[in-house]
Design brief:
The chain is of the alpha/beta class. Helix content is 40%, strand content 16%. The longest helix has 17 residues, at 67-83. The radius of gyration is 21 Å and the shape is globular.
Length: 367
Amino acid sequence: MGKSKKILIVSPSLGFGGAERVSSYLSIMFSQLGYDVTILTAKNITDYSFLGNHISLDLDSGNGFNFIKKISSFFKWRHIARTHSFTAVIDTRARRHTIRELLVELFVYPKDTAKIYMCHRSDLHIYIPKPRTFFLPLYKNVNHLIAVSKTIENQIRHMGLSNVRTIYNALDFNTINNLAKTNFSSEKPYIVGVGRLDEDVKQFDHLIEAFVDSGLPEKGVELRILGDGFLKESLKNTADELCEIKDCIRFEGFVPNPFVYMKNAEFLVKSSRLEGFPMALIEALACETPVVSYDCPTGPSEIIQHQQNGLLVENGNIQALTAAIKRMYDDKVLYKRCKANARKSVSHLSFENIKTQWKKLIEATNA
């Protein structure tokens, strides 16, 4: 047997968000393949299960702006990348800061390590820095750019980069099944929304307004929002102002096991103005829970089969979202069909299928 391949996964953290969950899943997949895995994170957050050696740069938000700390962490990052003879580095970070990314390209990753950069969202300025006239030639020399949706892949190709392919986010069906079976009870039926409350891209204000106007509160249905962030208090105020029925909208904060909430929900609603390949949608479907989502760029249209496993809604149209929420709850024939189709509609995203795609990529990459 040949020497084990050594993989470095670079991620903001191992908790709190969908992209971070993808990093944790990658560590498990590569470890299962027999690779030697190291996960390097900016923040020491480990809400998600992982396999491999975890190293944190301890750049927690509570440290404030500490120039010396950041410089020290940069050199630590460089030392790790250059002294472990990694076969490939898989960088899942947002790469929006011009100077930092230039330093990374020039000084952090060695030339004999394959570079695989992931793009998780459609706002590509987060992943391919500006000025583009400078960074596009650099990114043409990256071994692979991995898009998490076909639409993102097409956007990258339109920029003149051909070293791109789509690998969808994976689902760990075994873990989801086990966690979804956790004991759980709710006095009232509810729908659920999931996401960070620290960026307006998720548009939870749209979800709250649509839920209130749908008439579901009057039918005894609750809205449960899973996630945390600095927008939480303002969203609570919005909920209090719009909904006359006390406590019909519940903010659960970050929950380590969202699957039990998804499994027991009537359906999940995604109100984002943009996404990549949203984990919450595919995880809900894996829990046999239908979904309602804005047809935002990108991801939902590659996940939702309209009126078969969920409902796609014109992006940003709160009135249409309201109608879709009402329809999904009231139309029992539609609901039953979507629920029956939910799990099988994402079966192609199994760990084994996605792991095979990653293995082919790594094995074919000349490092």
